[in-house]
Amino acid sequence: MAKVTEQDVITFLRDKISTLTAELKKTQAALDAFSGKATPVTANKPAVVESPEPVKSRRGRKPAPKKEVVKPLDVPEEFDSNGKLDSKIAFILSKNGALFNTEIIERLKELEPEKDADKLSKAVMVKLSALHKANRIRGEKEGRKFKYQL
Predict the structure, then answer these.
(1) Residue 92 exposure: Cα atoms within 13 Å on the Cβ side
(2) Domain of life, per the record (predicted)?
């Protein structure tokens, strides 16, 4: 971790003051405009509100990466017990339509009885949530549960 010097703190605080001062001026100008106390505008020169200069921060969060367009799930023709969990879920949803997570887990247990039921159920719950969040499957909330479909 980088050492922060006293000069870094002073520079940061001065930048923060200038940014907040500029923001306060903009807010005051907006408030004056809405309350009818706008500063008089001359005929040749309109009122101008200064925008703050961008402050280059040395610290803070990195910008979030841009999300890529996600392709829908590929549905296999037949069930493959050695395939990925995504394709197993896609197969079950394509054959049965919209299902709750517990129904998907039951169908997987029927197709793979040798798998540990507890591990399978946890893995399916996590995978369904991730697929839904990534918009690779649709989920409609019914009560406290989601009903998933392709």
Answers:
(1) 26
(2) Bacteria
